[in-house]
Write a structure and sequence with these properties.
The complex is a heterotrimer of chains A (274), B (270) and C (300).
Chain A (H helix, E strand, L loop, with lengths): L2 H35 L4 H5 L2 E2 L4 E2 L2 H32 L4 H15 L2 H15 L6 H26 L2 H9 L4 H29 L3 H7 L16 H11 L3 H29 L3
Antiparallel strand pairs in A: 1-2
Helix pairs in contact in A: 1-11, 3-6, 3-8, 4-6, 5-6, 5-9, 6-8, 6-9, 7-8, 8-11, 10-11
Chain B lengths: L19 E6 L4 H14 L4 E6 L2 H10 L4 E4 L12 E15 L7 E2 L1 H8 L17 E5 L4 H11 L9 E3 L2 H10 L3 E6 L13 E2 L1 E2 L6 H5 L6 E9 L4 H11 L1 H10 L3 E2 L7
Chain C lengths: L17 H43 L1 H6 L3 E2 L4 E2 L2 H32 L2 H16 L2 H20 L6 H25 L3 H9 L4 H12 L1 H17 L2 H4 L19 H8 L5 H32 L1
Antiparallel strand pairs in C: 1-2
Helix pairs in contact in C: 1-12, 3-6, 3-9, 4-6, 5-6, 6-9, 7-8, 9-12, 11-12
The chains are: A mainly alpha (274), B alpha/beta (270), C mainly alpha (300).
Amino acid sequence: MNKTLSNRLALGILWGAALLTVAVLGALLLYVFVNGIRVISPAFIFTWPHGVNAEGGIWPTIVATVYVTALAMLISAPVAVLAAVYLAEYASQGRVVSTIRFAADSLASVPSIVMGLFGFALFVEAMGLNLSMASAALALSLLMLPIIMRATEEAIRAVPKYMRWGSYGLGATKWQTVSRIVLPAAAPRIVTGIVLAAGRAVGETAVVLYTMGQAVNLPLTPLDSGRPMTVHLYLLAVEGINLPAAFGTALLLIAMILGFNLSARWILKHYRKV
Amino acid sequence: MAVSLLMVGGCGRSQGRTDQITVSGSTTILPIAEQAAELFTQKDPSSSILVSGLGSSAGIEAVSAGTAQVGTSSRDLKEEEKSLGLVDTPIAYDGIAVIVSPKNPVSGLTVEQLQNVFAGVITNWSELGGADRHIELVNRDEASGTREAFKKIVMGDIPFDPRAAVLPGTGQVRDVVARAPGAIGYISLGFVKPRFTNVTVKALKVDGVTPSEKTVGDQTYPIGRRLHFLTKGEPTGLAKAYIDFVLSDTIQKGVVVDAGFIPVAEGGAR
Amino acid sequence: MSENNEHHSAGSLQLVSRSTYVKENLLKAVFFMCAFVFVLAVALIFIFVGWKALPIVTEYGLGKFITGTVWSSSTGQFGILPLIIGSFIVTLGALALGTPLAVGTAVFLSDVASPKVRSFVRPAVELLAGVPSVVYGFFGIILLRAIVAKFSGTLGFGAFTAWIVLAIMIVPTIAVLSEDALRSIPEGIREASYAMGATQWQTIYKVVVPAAKIGIIDAIILGMGRAIGETMAVLMVVGNAPVFPAGIFAPLSTMTTQIVMDMPYAVGLHRTALFAMAAMLFIFSMFLVATVRLLSRLRN
């Protein structure tokens, strides 16, 4: 086979690979959309599940998901951003920084079941928080920390040096420079990172299963438990009795995460100054 | 199917509020418990009843540890559990149907044959008068009261074949068996008829008896069981009100029958 | 890139007031503690999970645990070899299926697609990466299992179904990371290759991919990490039989799925065994991270 033919063939295969990947995504989304859209209605979103087979809506699960994700964001964002500030602005390369990075990578790769069991052992049992929004938020924030930190660090590094030099030249201290020049300039990317991390948190199942439980409940305080949408979908799917509700839940879940991802993208595009 | 954890050591806040109780345990009983809880809190909005289904064993553990006020179980207490100080209030009867695909020509088995099938000794339908097809075993997860009851009545001391697929939900067992001509599984009689689906399964005769509410009630059908509500000591307060409500006609002739179970007043003891 | 703004006190020019100096150092300490949270978290996970898992070593025996072939909680036997094998079967099969597709997509994005096409495909792949595992599991249990059951005549649970679901899940991860690695190869290398008369494909497989080799291997390793740690999606299609599977359509179990199945009712040594498996999974994932870091260091 001459090289032009093999070139054509290979390129064709590569096109095929990409198309297959996109097709799978398309098929999955289409399947969930088609089956789920007929279930979606204001009633579905705003009423409670009731009856033998979770007929009705999924409102408390939506609240639980949003509540715990917001709580996790509140906990993880400040810590992760400041940690990134340290690594990007203050730290000198050395064993300490290397250890921190290794820890961050490890945290990012923890299997979710391990995080779930850990969350159960530490937050639910040892710290006595019981199955609650608080326990779940703490466990989720551990998963979100590396994502936000990585995004923030990249964002900070992307801020051009001349902006810092200008600030120091005017006599500003390091913190003044960081807080008034660097962070605001890096803000869009940081927010993007936080939003993407939140998207990850929304999709977690094993972690919240062991830290929040699965009783349907409308959480008011952080010590209340509840059932997030992912767990609800899991239970519906596995019971296999009320599939329409399962499709509806899946659709809303995907819509929420897509919403997060797309708004992250939009923020990046429209607010980038750097 | 339900894989959450309420077996936590710390009792904490679950004991605090007198207007809230936690009910946990059997997935078979879950529909009754949830509907009853919903109707109860509609009548008395100051009360709050948190219901979850993690399996009968988990429910027994939870109520004896104090993390749940009412434990539900679709199996009888084991020997070692009898000394936990739990008070047992039966709330319904249930038959366990052995199901196969409607395409399966076999229509009945003896308890002994069932035992051999689920132990993995008989592996082909031809040994039972059916087609030449490998028997695909569908088992329930170990937390399931349905499994416990089946084990106690059919298997005795013989262990289940570990190669069986273990599924965590009644609906799933049903769906899987319905679509696989070689499959066999067991579910609560009440779930044999389809609800949200048009996929059907066939319930086998056991020892010649067709499972039905009547044959479970008069005990001619061999695989039947009691559904229990358990409390630590005699039920009091909200728990008692709730259990009394479950035993009332509203629930017994409504939800219990809707779910395919047999009201406790009509059935025989087992 | 940290600007060194340390101000020595005695002997040299003091450029800021003492209070500012104290404040700056205090802030630095606070930020350091935030960064240290990561190390603390990992250490805590190690300690807690390890401590809960310890009785397996002291009371049961690590060797018996890892090499035992029977997992039966009712008889007190906790041999996890079938589960370890199960985890590997499921992971390696998914990698075998998913890696070619993922790397192919990555190469397409970096070297073949026009910017317009790329602006459509790359976000699509990234979005695929964000779909939660429970949705994939749902898809597997509702659609895939029934299809596999129909054409194989079995229940439809088992390695085969798990491979497909898991492969779909790890393709976006591997593809995105591989593409990043490929894009970081300077254009000059490609131009040199074309200048010598190579076709696009020849350039890709002889020049670009080998140059990005380590980055792509990193991506595959991270994909492997995701696959081995995946729980929900696999749980819904694998069949949960803690034995060595007789075939690719026979039910099996993995370490992650066994933990989720047993946790609700496991007590005593049984629960310890589950935590021990979690500990092993954690150690293995850290090992993968260390491998990736080592490879990256070699690249530099």
